[in-house]
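TICKET: design request
STATUS: open
ATTACHED STRUCTURE:
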């Protein structure tokens, strides 16, 4: 500044003009130096750093680079130059220093914010992130960062100690609790969800209260994002997963088997004892040959030992078509290549009702994929419906319009035959 003033004094300018022009020249000079420093930082230092980072074998530093941590950090250079140049202008030194320091604090906050984003992205690259997500904790850290940063900025502008402002926030604790109620609840819920391993990213959960039925795609401080199977997105409050019940299908997916629990309803009027002709036909069925032979020998032995009069099928032990059919389904499932043979496999009768006798299949497919599971289930029941008539059984179905038309045609045909 003295040098500039001395040079201007040689042109015979007034003192006021010298001060004015020297200040202007100094401002331009500082601006040029700041722009030059910023240019060197971004074009040389940042490019060199980016080249070194991309050329090494590590991947985590690439994530830091992608989150523009170094780019944001480069904004500190001009601010530092302006801050240390403030003493050149004694009249405005305090104002310039406050403005520059405020800018430095804000940039520092942005740098730490970018670092937290980078840390979250690095953590997500590991499989453990699906089991122990930390996005909620990252969001809490950001809230604390911005609160502290805001307090420091305000303290710098008013020239007070930040601790004085912090002490004043104690009186506003109730208001802060109300403002950050969801965040506090979400933080507590996030800790419980994570520590108890209740839900992970990628889990299939079902929560009818919120019309949620799909895969968890994100867990944040306040919400759990679920992509339903119809591709809609449901946002569930994190604390709702603690306070309300929900179903997590992870256990099924990890077990390697998905349950098939469906019934076929047998018309009870078609149930009866097996005739000799039926037994001979059943012996020809691959899955029933050994069973029928063994059961017939066992029944004959029992009836002979107890001197049962077999002229009436009511006496002694007899095979029934529904019993043989149940055993056939059981053997069919035992030999089905898509059924998990290590898990429960039962074919049972349930309580009969207005819709006939329910014959329930309780088994597990060995593929938990939804499409494969549905195909296996459909294939099994296609076969069951198709073979039921072979055993003299009818599958129950309420009368349809087609049945009524057929009855009407038969009745008309019968009347016509009688009239003829």
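STATUS: resolved
RESOLUTION: sequence designed for all positions
ATTACHED SEQUENCE:
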């Amino acid at each position: 500044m003295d040098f500039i003033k001395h040079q201007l004094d040689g042109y015979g300018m007034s003192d006021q003009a010298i001060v004015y022009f020297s200040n202007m020249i100094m401002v331009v000079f500082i601006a040029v130096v700041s722009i030059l420093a910023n240019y060197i930082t971004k074009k040389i230092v940042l490019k060199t750093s980016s080249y070194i980072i991309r050329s090494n074998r590590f991947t985590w530093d690439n994530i830091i680079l992608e989150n523009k941590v170094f780019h944001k950090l480069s904004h500190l250079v001009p601010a530092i130059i302006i801050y240390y140049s403030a003493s050149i202008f004694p009249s405005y030194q305090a104002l310039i220093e406050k403005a520059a320091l405020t800018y430095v604090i804000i940039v520092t906050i942005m740098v730490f914010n970018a670092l937290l984003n980078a840390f979250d992205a690095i953590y997500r690259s590991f499989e453990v992130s699906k089991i122990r997500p930390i996005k909620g904790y990252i969001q809490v850290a950001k809230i604390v960062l911005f609160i502290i940063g805001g307090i420091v900025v305000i303290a710098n502008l008013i020239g007070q100690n930040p601790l004085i402002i912090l002490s004043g926030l104690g009186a506003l604790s109730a208001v802060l609790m109300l403002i950050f109620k969801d965040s506090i609840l979400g933080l507590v819920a996030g800790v419980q969800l994570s520590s108890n391993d209740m839900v992970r990213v990628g889990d299939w959960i079902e929560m009818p209260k919120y019309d949620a039925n799909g895969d968890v795609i994100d867990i944040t401080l306040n919400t759990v994002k679920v992509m339903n199977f119809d591709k809609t997105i449901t946002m569930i409050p994190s604390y709702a997963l603690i306070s309300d019940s929900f179903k997590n299908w992870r256990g099924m997916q990890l077990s390697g088997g998905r349950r098939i629990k469906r019934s076929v309803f047998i018309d009870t009027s078609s149930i009866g004892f097996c005739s000799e002709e039926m037994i001979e036909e059943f012996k020809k069925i691959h899955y029933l040959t050994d069973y029928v032979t063994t059961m017939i020998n066992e029944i004959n032995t029992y009836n002979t030992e107890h001197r049962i009069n077999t002229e009436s099928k009511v006496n002694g032990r007899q095979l029934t078509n529904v019993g043989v059919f149940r055993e056939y389904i059981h053997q069919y499932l035992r030999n089905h290549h898509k059924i998990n043979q290590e898990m429960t496999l039962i074919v049972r009768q349930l309580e009969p009702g207005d819709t006939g006798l329910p014959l329930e299949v309780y088994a597990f497919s060995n593929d938990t994929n939804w499409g494969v599971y549905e195909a296996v289930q459909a294939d099994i029941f296609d076969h069951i419906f198709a073979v039921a008539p072979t055993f003299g059984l009818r599958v129950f179905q309420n009368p349809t319009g087609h049945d009524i038309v057929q009855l009407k045609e038969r009745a008309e045909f019968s009347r016509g035959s009688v009239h003829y």
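CLOSING REMARK: The chain has three domains: 2-192, 197-254, 258-272+320-402. The CA atoms of residues 169 and 176 lie 9 Å apart.
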